[in-house]
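User: Structure please.
Assistant: Input sequence and predicted structure:
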Amino acid sequence: MKIENFIFRKSFEKVFTKERISFVIKKMKLNLDINNFFDFKPHRKIFIPKDEYNSREINIPDLKAKVIQKIIQEELSYALKFNSRSYAYQRGKSPLQAINRVKNIIKSYNFVIRCDIKDFFDSIDQDKLINTLEKIIIDRKILYLLILFIKNGSLFRGKWSDKLEGIYQGDVLSPLFANIYLHSFDTHFDKLGYEFIRFSDDLIFFSKNYNEAEKILNLISSYLNIFSLELNQQKSLIKHKSDKFEYLGVVFDEKNRVYSIENSRLMSKISNLSQETKKLNLIDAINTVNNHIRGFKNYYLKIINNYSQLDLLQKREDEILIDKIIESKKNKTITRKVDFYQILLGVKTYVEFGKGVLSVKFKDYPTFLIERAYEKIKFATPKQSAQKTIEKKRREYYKNYLKSTELIISKFSSYIYFSKGRVKVRTKDEPVKEIPFNIIQRIVILNKKTSLSSYLIYKCSQHGINIDFIDQNQPYAMISYFSSMSNSLYQKQLKIMNSKIALNYAKSLIFSKAKNQINLLKYFNQRRGDGEINKKIEIMEKIIAKIKATNSIKSLLGYEGQISQSYWFGFKEIIGVDNFIRTHKNSTDIYNQSLNYAYAILYSRVQSALLKEGLNIYYSFLHSQGHKKPTLVFDMVEIFRQPIVDREIISIITKHQKLSQSKGLLSETTKKLIIQHIQGRLSSFTKTRYGKVTYFNLIELEAHSLKVAIENEDSSHKFFIAKY
């Protein structure tokens, strides 16, 4: 080793420029004044529990001292060239490299000498370290600072303690001091021709035979005595390479070529992971787990091949995340599998999915975790779980029922006709689709360029199957075959239109709509905790209180407008689209087009339900009557917009499902996506005064309830309010 490679010649002024100090302060994210910067305080001494009976002394340096030490450490680490056998605390060196070096060296040797230095940092002779530094550091000011750091005292409860021996283990400079102190040790044994690796005070030497190994161990002990150091006898041993030995936390089993984590470290890692995630929610637990795995993969996973240990770590990760899924579901912060799946997509694993403990029959790791969590919940309470399974099967039945009984045509230039007991749909460049006629209950055509055979219309009239026509998000026609229209019911509707009952119905309707708007905002904001949305909800609730006292439709509509203004602000905040403004007709943006398209589907279903009850859809109590305006449909749609349409559109947007346009209008794929969501929502169950019913049944029940109220001239009629 050339002597010039171990001398630091830079001056104090060149090392400690104002720019350099300011840069390091900023890098360390500290707020320090650089005036009188070298006047740092003594260390602050604290004690932390080591185990049940003992504590560990920790000495914390002043922030200024940390910055100064960081600058010197960077300079000396760059300038001083240490021996190649030394791997600790050096640029370009790592524990991983040390382990790989051991793997290579052991191939040519039979014995290993494992030893470490007893109380190394506390046993360093300060005078000998300073003497070594005097030979290395040319500038006396820098040397003076280094000596200050070695000798600097500490304070505990106002009492000063001198530092008379050793160096502070927590100082930035301590690892560098350690390497400087043992540099001559490395050089000495390198010149003797021995093969070894040193990582701070952790040593491993290699020999061909046992006698040589004993000789090396004695030489190490003798040489360390020169530096006032001694070996830790309990950790100093000689082993044949066919026996297992440990170095830097890795257990070497050369006989079987197996490399493992030292058992106490493995248990410590499992324990630490459990403790750190104990009080965290699912998302924070995932971040913590990922950090652990990232560190593990950067070191241990590049070394070890003991798959039983990897499986043990993986099982613990599985247990932690499964418990967090269960916890989230129980406290209702996350309730749907699709939401869990999105959150879990970024989680890392110790074991590659499909191998070892993760060689399971699931498509991916998130699915595996979700299914295991749901299974655990299911069998924790068998009776409740059995009931939920029945409810789920019932929901699926109604969902499939709705899909199979409702024929929706969205593509242009389609031709629909009846043939041999089946409805057939012919579309350009696509095979003919066939649906058994006896299962169809409703046909919806979502454009104005679809043709129908007259025989199909005839067959629909025989079986009371409605045909709804919608284009550009607006219903424009309907072929209906209900025969329950009643002249006496029409007269009752007319009578009510001009009475106080109509005002009561209008007030009840606006109240229900406003409550549905508020409840939806609360539902989506419960995890967000957006203060601005909460303010808008408070405003809405204050306005609702005024509805009961109003005496005119005009003032009622004024309150509705104010409430809706706050509602659409909340809607905009939830979907995260800053420039969103609610528009109804001729909308050009994809969000309003999606809402309007879904409203049109809802509109046709509400209209069908009202006609089925024999109500005149042109007689209403809220919206102004107009030529060919089915204003009663406009009234009834209001209470279903939020729980059926708005909720699903928000879900589509916030879950980043792709919405797209074609020639300024919704694309076919987007229309299908919206239809799927609305059908899914219509087939889902909700709690009502009629019991637990699907939304598509609820629409019919609300229409029937309104009919009964009109027939009985019941002024206390109430409309549906959704609860989540």
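The radius of gyration is 39 Å.
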